[in-house]
Amino acid sequence: MRYVYGLSSALLLGGAAISLMTGIPAGAQVAQNDDQVMNRVVPREGAPASFADLTEQLQPAVVNIATRQRVEVSRNPFAGTPFAELFNRRRGGTQPQTREAQSLGSGFIISADGFVVTNNHVISPPNSNATLEEITVTMPDGTEYEAELVGSDAASDLAVLKINADRSFPFVTFGDSSAARVGDWVVAIGNPFGLGGTVTSGIVSAIQRTTGQGGAYDRYIQTDASINRGNSGGPLFDMRGNVIGINNAIFSPSGGSVGIGFAIPAETAAPIVRQLMAGEEIERGFLGVGLQPMDDDLADSLGLQRNRGELVQSVQEDSAAEAAGLRPGDIITEINNREVTADQTVSIIVGNLDPGTRIPMKVLRDGNQLELTATLGKRPTEEELMRSQQVFDPDAETPMDPDASDGNVEEKLGLQVITMTPQIRNSLGVGEETNGLVIAAVDPNSDAGRKGLRRGDIILSANYEAVDTIEALNAQIAAAEEDGRDAVLLRIKRRGQPARFLPVRLR
Q1: Catalytic entry in 121, 153, 205, 226
Q2: Which of 24, 82, 177, 212 lies at a C-alpha separation of 20 to 30 Å from 242?
Q3: What is the per-residue pLDDT across 29-88, written as a single tens digit (0 to 9) for each?
Q4: Which residue among the candidates 153, 157, 443, 447 is catalytic per the annotation?
Q5: What is the CATH code for 392-505?
Q6: Is there a binding annotation on residue 248?
Q7: What is the CATH number assigned to the segment(s) 285-378?
Q8: 395 by DSSP, 3-state: which?
C-alpha cells in the first residue's frame, strides 16, 4: 500500500462547516423551514439491509497476489567505499549474496480466461537489485495458481497479469466512474495484512481528488471504506457490482486506515488495462517543462489570481516546450483550450494526450498574454525521468559504481562518465555553450586518478576531437590504440578554472 502524506488541512477539516443542532430532531428542523425549502430531495432508504448478496456475487473474482523476488546483496564489507575494489582484488573477487523478498497485495479477474488487474507497485520489485521471479494468485477458495506479468505501467501504477491455468474463471467488469457521486455507497474487497477476502464498505468521499503528488494521474476517488496495507490493487465496487476504482493509496499518519483512501478511477484505468492486455506500449504526451503550482505568495508577487496557472521553472533542451517558445518565468494559464487550475494541472492535461498532438497555449510573460502552439513529444519512462531529474553533486565523494559501468571508458581510462544535461550544467555552473562528458567517478588506482581528475570535471575533447557522447570518447580511445599510442590527450574543464590539456595513459 502506498502512503500519501503532505495533504492540505482541507482534507482533514472538510466537515468543519457542518453545525449540529442539539436538542432539536433533524426532521423537526426541516419541518420548521419547509417554507424556505424548494425542490427538497427525499433520499431513498440509505444503506442496504445487507451487502451479503452483492459480496457473494463479487468475491469469487477478487484474488490475493503474492510475489517472490531475488535481491542481490554485496558481500563486500567495504561496498560503497574507496576500499571496495582493493578488498575484491585481495579476495579474488566476491560473488554477491542473494536473498528472497516477498510482497502481498490484491487484484481482480476481468476475463474468463484469467486476466488479472492490480497495482504496479504490488508486483514491481521495490529494489533496483531485485528481480521478480514468481507471482502467485490465490483464489478465495484457497486454490493457488502461477501467473505471469503481461504488462505494467509505472506512471499510472497499473499492471496486468495472466493466470496460467486452462479453466474458466469468475470475473468482474469496469463500470462508469464518471457517474460516481459523492455520498454513493461503495464496497472494497481485498487482502489487508494478508487477511484474504476482507470486505469493507463506505461511501464516495470525493471525486477527482488531487493529492499534490503531481503527475498525469493525480486524480482519485476518495473513499472512507477501510483500506489498509495489502488492499493495493483490489477493486472498489459500486452497488451494481461494477469496478469503479482500483484501491491504490491511503492518507495515514499512523500507518493504518483513518478513513481516507484513494482509488484509481475506472475511466482512467480501463483504457490503460486494455492496452496492456494487447501488449501495446503506453505512450503519453510530453511538454518538457518544470512547473510550480500557483500559491498565495507566488500569485501576490506576480499580481495574479490564485489557483490560476502554473509557473515555468525550467525548459528542457530539444523539448516540445522549447520548440514552442516557452521560457522560464512564463505562466501557463490555459492549455489545449482548458484553464489551468489546481485540479486541472498542465501535467494532467498533457499526460492524457498522445505524442504528436498540437496544443494551443495561453501564456503570461512580463504581464502580456501570448498564444503559443506546441507539438507534444513522447514522455520518457519513469526511470529516464528520475535520472534526468537527479541533482548532480560534483563535491560528493562517490566511488566507482559497478552497476553503472561505462564499459570501455572505465576499463581503459578508469573513469565513469555521464552525458551533459541542463540539470548538471546548473550544478556545475557552466553555460549552454559548454558541451562534453562529465566525470561521475574516478578509479584512484588509474592514471587519471593519480593525475588528479575528479568527479565534476568535464571532458571537452579527446585527441582534439569534441566528445559529447560516450560513443565519441570510445571512438577516440580505439583510434589511439590503433595508432599504437599508450595515452589519450584529454581537454579538461574544471569549475572556476580555464580548460587545460591532460594526457591520460590507457590501462
Answers
A1: 121
A2: 212
A3: 333 444 444 455 545 555 677 899 999 999 999 999 998 877 665 555 545 444 455 545
A4: 157
A5: 2.30.42.10
A6: no
A7: 2.30.42.10
A8: coil
